[in-house]
C-alpha cells in the first residue's frame, strides 16, 4: 500500500539526493568486489563480469508508476529480466506478471504468486505450454489469429482470452507488430469465431513496441481497442479488461503516462480494469555491469603517429551485451579500475582524475571487444577513455538491466551465469528483500 507520500519521499527529494545514494551504493559494491582480484593469481572465473543491481531503483519505478498510471495495474514482463530478486520485490509490491513461456510461468508460480496475477501474453503458444497453463490455473492469455482459437478450444476452453490487436509501432526501438497482432479488419471475424467456439473473450491487448517514443501510438491504440470492445459487445461478449502492454521507457515515462491516462479516461469507463506489461521501464537503469580487460592489442598508425588500443573484455555481444544486437543499445564504457586506482564516478567531466580536481589525463582511443572468436562481437567500435588501460583493469557499464542477461548465450564456452550483487537505495525495498 504505497501512498503518494512514499513517492514524494523517494522521488520529490532533491533528485540528486536519491541518485547520489544509489551511485554511491553501486560504486561501493563494485569497488569492494574488484579491489582484491589479482589477475596474476586469481582462480578461474574470479575475474568474471558481474552485475550490481540497485533494487531501490526498481522500487522507485514502481512508486512512479502508481503515481502516474493509477488505473493501470502493472504485470511485469518477465522476459525482460527474470532476475529472482526483481521478481520477488515486484511480487511483494503486488504487481502481476506477463509470462511468455512455460518456464516463466513456472518461475513465477514457484514464488507463490497466485495464477490469477499472471497473463500468458504470447499470441502463438506451444501446445504443451497451454496444457501446463491450464493445469496451473493460469487462465488469462492472448490470441491474435483463428488457428490459435482452435488450439485454445481444444486445450483450454475455459481460458480468459485477450484479443491482441496491431499497433503502429514504427517509432519504437523493437517492433513487435511485424510478428503479432490482429488487424482491425480481422477483429470482427475473430470475435465471431470465438463466439461460435463458445470461448470466453474478456479483453483486448496491444503493445506499441518496445522502447516506444511516440505517445500518439498509445492514443491510437486505445482508440482502436475501444472500437474492438464495441464490436465484441455487439456480439454479446462482456469485455472487462484492457491490456495496454509495455513499451515504456524511464526517460519519457511521465509524458507517455499522461497521454495514456487521458486516452483511457476518455474511452474506457472506470469499471473497465486496465493492466499493463512493462518490462524495460522497471529494470533498465537498475543494473550496472563490471567487466575485466582480459587482453589488449596496441594499434599504431605510423602515418598519423597515433597509438590506440583494442581492448578485449570477458563479456560481449554473445553474453550480457546481447542487447547491442537484439535491443539496439549502445552501452557506454566507463573506467572502474586502472592499475591500483578506482575511478568509479570520478571521471565524468573533462576526465578529472581520482581526488585531483583539475588534473587532466591524456584521453586514449579504444575499440572494445567481447571474448569470442566472432568479429561482430564488438561492444564499441570507437570510444575515448581517460586512462591508458591494460590487462586486469576493469570497465563498467550502466543501464544494463533490460534484455541483457536473459538473452546471453554460452558461445565459445563462456558462462552465461554472472554473479549479481544486490544493493538498495530505498529502505522500502531493503525491508522487503532483507537487504
Ligand atoms: N509484453 C509483450 C507481449 C512483449 O512482447 C514485451 C516485449 O517484447 C513486453 C510486454 C515488454 O515490453 P517493454 O520491455 O518494452 O516494456
UniProtKB/TrEMBL annotation:
GO molecular function: ornithine decarboxylase activity
UniProt-listed Enzyme Commission number(s): 4.1.1.17
Gene3D superfamilies per record: Alanine racemase, Lyase, Ornithine Decarboxylase, Chain A, domain 1
Main enzyme class: lyase
Source superkingdom: Eukaryota
Keywords: Decarboxylase, Lyase, Pyridoxal phosphate
Cofactor(s) the protein requires to work: pyridoxal 5'-phosphate
Pathway assignment: Amine and polyamine biosynthesis; putrescine biosynthesis via L-ornithine pathway; putrescine from L-ornithine: step 1/1
Subunit-level organization: Homodimer. Only the dimer is catalytically active, as the active sites are constructed of residues from both monomers.
Family (UniProt): Belongs to the Orn/Lys/Arg decarboxylase class-II family.
Protein name stated in the entry: ornithine decarboxylase
Gene source species: Coniosporium apollinis
